[in-house]
Amino acid sequence: MLAARPDALPLAGGTDLMVVWNAGGLAGRTFVDLTPIAAWSRIQASPKALVIGSLVTHAALVRHPLVRRRFPLLAAAAATVGGPQIQNRGTLGGNIANASPAGDTFPPLLVYEARIRIASADGVREVPLPEVFAGPKRTTLATGELIASVVLPAERKATRELFRKVGTRAAQAISKTVVAGRLWLKRDGTIDALRFALGSMAPTARRLPIVEAFVRGKRPTDAVVREACALVAQDVAPIDDVRSTAAYRLAVSRNLLAAFLRP
């Protein structure tokens, strides 16, 4: 249908799209309702991965036992998206396609190294999540392409994990910064690997490759933690906007990183 009507807009939960429509921004547009695609509303598990259909709602992620057990940061993030009404309508695929820099699920998906399956009349391709984002509210999807599913590879258990959303209110807030982290420690206390991702800190949610590389193989001493926090500014460049200041975002993100790294 999209191949025949390239001007049509795909509609999933509609929690973002209908806001624009109600404001008159989409008058006269054609919509393609995706909800009848039952296969895209399923969560399927295998020993190697968990495949989450793009039409799975945030509420379903919060409730699903495998998501809660194997990917708890994603369940925690889904529980912070809007209120119950939004969580019961909004979909994971729609959240990704909306491409907000403040998307709550994106830092967990980044530290779980999610891959996105993209379908079109020409077939299916799979890319890492960062390759989907082109900038604020923009994706790299071509005309006629749809997000079919999110693939989360099975991995060894981390020593520590973190999800934290910082907003003006405790509920139904757009994040000033949103953080996810996974840390693996060796028996001698040195850092085997760190994955740390931030949202609302750059045009797209992103990992901190400079920080991650710096701490690898080191003990999280006070000096190492201070240097790691100083390096955050090399991985992201937050801005001042109506929700927060760049200085506040950077300070909070550094504080959360420091608390996460320390024993």
Task: Walk me through this protein's architecture.
There is one protein chain. The model has no long low-confidence stretch (mean pLDDT 93). This protein has helices spanning 17-22, 58-63, 65-70, 72-78, 84-89, 92-98, 106-111, 209-215, 222-235, 246-261; strands at 9-11, 31-33, 43-45, 49-53, 115-120, 123-128, 133-135, 138-139, 146-153, 160-166, 177-185, 191-199, 206-207. The chain folds into two domains: 9-153, Uridine Diphospho-n-acetylenolpyruvylglucosamine Reductase, domain 3 (2-Layer Sandwich); 160-261, CO dehydrogenase flavoprotein, C-terminal domain (Enolase-like, domain 1, 2-Layer Sandwich). A hairpin with a 5-residue loop joins strand 11 (177-185) and strand 12. It contains ten helices and 13 strands. With 263 residues, the chain is α+β, with helices and mostly antiparallel strands. The strands form four sheets. Strands 3-4-9-5-6 form a five-stranded antiparallel beta sheet, covered by helices on one side. The chain has a four-stranded antiparallel beta sheet with strand order 10-11-12-13, sandwiched between helices. It has a two-stranded parallel ribbon with strand order 1-2. Helices cover 31% and strands 25% of the residues.
